[in-house]
Design goal:
Distance between the termini: 49 Å
Helix content: 10-25%
Number of helices: 4
Largest sheet: 4 strands, mixed
Number of strands: 7
Radius of gyration: 18 Å
Order of helices and strands: HEHEEEEHHEE
Strand content: 25-35%
Strand order of the largest sheet: 1-5-4-3
């Protein structure tokens, strides 16, 4: 595809995962369980229309949906419109980590995510080993 076609023609980017029973989880619960260094594979991003305002949601595994903070709405919209990123997500090459920050507006500890690349490990074959395998 060309740059103009990819960027400006309206199309729907689709994620390849399937989910029958989504379970919504808070970022704070995932952070308490796995800490800040844990990398979650991103399976999809979407905008939830429930409540007064749409808000971004990340799919952390096939059945774990995580509400993201409202300040991430614009970046999630931008990410959803990117077909190259959608292909990377479908290939399991995009993830996120959870971080905390103090908010005077919300008076306390808040949670958000940093998106990251996930390097796919290549399996080791016998030819790659520095010794002879019998």
């Amino acid at each position: 595809m060309s740059y103009v076609n990819d960027k400006y023609n309206k199309k729907v980017n689709k994620y390849s995962f399937k989910c029958d029973n989504p379970v919504y989880t808070k970022l704070s619960d995932l952070y308490a369980k796995n800490g800040e260094k844990h990398v979650y594979t991103l399976h999809a991003l979407y905008l939830a229309e429930k409540g007064d305002f749409p808000h971004p949601v990340a799919v952390a595994d096939v059945n774990t949906y995580v509400d993201l903070p409202p300040h991430m709405l614009d970046v999630v919209k931008e990410m959803r419109a990117d077909s190259v990123l959608t292909d990377l997500i479908n290939s399991g090459k995009v993830g996120f980590t959870i971080y905390t920050y103090q908010s005077s507006k919300h008076k306390g500890l808040c949670y958000a995510v940093d998106f990251c690349d996930i390097e796919q490990e290549t399996p080791t074959t016998d030819d790659d080993l520095p010794f002879e395998v019998e």
